[in-house]
Fold this sequence. Notes:
Elements: H1 2-31, H2 35-54, H3 65-84, H4 88-112, H5 116-143, H6 160-177, H7 181-198, H8 201-220, H9 225-241, H10 245-258, H11 265-282, H12 286-291, H13 297-303, H14 318-347, H15 352-367, H16 378-394
Helix pairs in contact: 1-2, 1-5, 1-16, 2-4, 3-4, 3-14, 4-16, 5-6, 5-7, 6-7, 6-8, 6-15, 7-9, 8-15, 14-15, 15-16
Amino acid sequence: MQLMVKKSTIEKNIQNIFIIFMLIMSVLVTFYDGSLNMIFYYTILGICCYFFMFKNHCTIKKKIYPILLYGMLTIGSTFFNGFIGSDYALVQMLWRTLRIFCTILVGYYYSEYSDEKSRKKMYYIIYILILISVAYGFYQNIAGIGWGYNSRMDSFFGHPITYGSILIFGFWMTLYLFKSVLVRGVFNIYIIMGLLSTRSRSAWIALALMVVLFLIKSSSDKLDKKKIFFLIFCIAAGIVFTFTPQFETIYEFIFSRFSGTMESASATQRLGSYAYIFMRLIGGNPIHIFFGYGEGAANSVMEMTTITLASFATTDCQYLTILYNYGLLGLLMIILFAIKIVKNYFKTACDPEQEMLILSILGGGYVTAIFYDIYGWLSISTLLMLFIGIYYGKEK
């Protein structure tokens, strides 16, 4: 009996090691981009798929059907357009579509065959790595070595918006992992300072919206002592902070980022991308409106035009990219999933892990995806798809 328990514990630890290693690799590829590293990443992903899906003798259950349907649509669209167009789409399918699909499945079966205690260990390790990334971001700030964004820190993640999305995950993990109001406050202030250093308006907006969602949910539920103390602590700390000189500095710092937003090059680029993509869809074959042009098509199209930035290879909006690549059906599946988890968040009593997953997915994924192509960044897309899979596995 003891041997079986020990074996079970070892297998759970191995599962966590695989997950963490996959996430670390997704970040390292940002620094050491190359075919050899990508082969290494896919090898790790393949091992994870084998370990979680085949080793656990997985079965296809009803709640995994949406994942399978989305995978079939994206892979089918990419194959079809690849055969009638160019091989580029087929290569892109291997690079993005399969890894996204497989990462969700890994998260799903990891959640199905693990307990919360084991997953919590995994969350702690991810959280510690996020805290380390914030420290490195501060070092970048002092040394002035941001990756081409010296006034905007990106830490290990290659871009400030990606870094901001990761920190939103960290913010909600704090509330899940720690019970002490003081500990939560200290760590989240630390994370918010890192978030401010990104100067990422999209991440700031996303976190603010999720805090509002959290407060609405808390007020509709019966407030327990922990939530009451946490709210009182936040309100009191906020009031005290408004009377400090640092508040004025941060106030000016934040609002300077929103001043003249609609006249900025990034706003012109994004609005121009919407107009350009919609015009191409409307003027094309009606079949593509529903099924899209396949993975990589939006990137190819954007490289052929100049709105404000020459050779800009993304639409700067994941939803717009999904619409062009996978059509209205692909976009509808993504939106329906968001509506579903928001409804579940308010209609059912979520346990702390579910609440953390929902707020992280919505804030760090769905909201920030309005402002950039999440699928194109391996680190955030791997973490996001893993959390989506875990959420599906936990869903009752």
